[in-house]
């Protein structure tokens, strides 16, 4: 019989002992990696939205980056930008304040001017019945008769453009168009996969 004082030596190269030695190390490394990924994710959330604010007068999905003071007529661009995400159909829709009335526009780089429906003209304080519809403009759906009018200002979040000539039409249209006469008043605009960026 073996002596009770004998002791058994275990070969350190055996698998069970090796697993027992390295498991705590692997577990700690895994925890560190998980913590690092969580921190990186949190940092990306904050850094990705840094400087963005939700404008009160447009839909929640719009994002507004403010880095300067509101533009004044005739002033130099202040380095501000507005991101308008593309809709499901790829179109850029934006809720704007036209003469203080809320109007939804389709931003159309192929349209030369600003075209208002009868309903939206009324929201902007224009009386469609008092206008003279003697001009003809070409649209994607053919020629339509329009009348000239003027907007004191159009505001989209912190972007404001004053004294805009517009057309009002009696033709049935699903939405008003915001075209190049508006976009040309900006310092630049750029279509990206994430949306349309307006800069002024």
Explain what the structure shows.
The chain has helices at 15-48, 118-123, 180-183; strands spanning 52-53, 63-65, 81-84, 92-98, 101-107, 114-116, 135-139, 142-156, 159-169, 176-178, 188-192, 195-199. With 200 residues, the protein is an alpha+beta fold. It folds into 2 domains: 1-50; 52-199, Acid Proteases (Cathepsin D, subunit A, domain 1, Beta Barrel). The strands form 2 sheets. The protein has a 6-stranded mixed beta barrel. Strands 1-2-3-12-11 form a 5-stranded antiparallel sheet, with no helix packed on it. A hairpin with a 2-residue loop joins strand 11 and strand 12. It starts with 14 loop residues before the first helix and ends with a strand. The model is unreliable at 6-15 and 41-77 (pLDDT under 50).
Q: Measure the end-to-end span.
A: 94 Å
For the biggest sheet, the summary is: 6 strands, mixed, barrel
Structural class call reads alpha+beta
Unreliably modeled segments: 6-15, 41-77
Under CATH at level 1, the class of the largest domain stands as Mainly Beta
Query: Order of strands across the biggest sheet?
Result: 4-5-10-6-9-8
Number of strands: 12
Mean pLDDT over the full residue set:
75
Strand content: 35-45%
Gyration radius over CA: 31 Å
Give the CATH topology of the largest domain: Cathepsin D, subunit A, domain 1
Q: What would CATH call the homologous superfamily of the largest domain?
A: Acid Proteases
CATH architecture label of the largest domain: Beta Barrel
Order of helices and strands: HEEEEEEHEEEEHEE
Helix content: 10-25%
Number of helices: 3
Tertiary shape: elongated
Give the number of domains.
2
């Amino acid at each position: 019989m073996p002596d009770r004082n004998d002791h058994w030596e275990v070969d350190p190269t055996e698998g069970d002992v090796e697993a027992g030695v390295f498991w705590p190390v692997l577990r700690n490394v895994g925890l560190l990696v998980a913590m690092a990924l969580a921190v990186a994710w949190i940092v990306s959330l904050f850094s990705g939205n840094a400087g963005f604010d939700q404008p009160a007068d447009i839909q929640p999905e719009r994002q507004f980056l403010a880095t300067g003071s509101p533009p004044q007529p005739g002033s130099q661009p202040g380095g501000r930008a507005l991101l308008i995400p593309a809709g499901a159909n790829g179109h850029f829709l934006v809720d704007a304040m036209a003469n203080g009335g809320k109007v939804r526009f389709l931003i159309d780089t192929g349209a030369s001017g600003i075209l208002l429906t009868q309903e939206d003209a009324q929201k902007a304080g224009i009386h469609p019945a008092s206008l003279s519809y003697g001009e003809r403009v070409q649209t994607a759906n053919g020629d339509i008769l329009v009348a000239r009018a003027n907007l004191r200002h159009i505001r989209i979040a912190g972007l404001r453009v004053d004294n805009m000539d517009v057309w009002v039409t009696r033709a049935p249209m699903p939405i008003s168009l915001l075209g190049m006469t508006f976009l040309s008043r900006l310092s630049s605009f750029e279509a990206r996969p994430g949306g349309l960026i307006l800069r002024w």
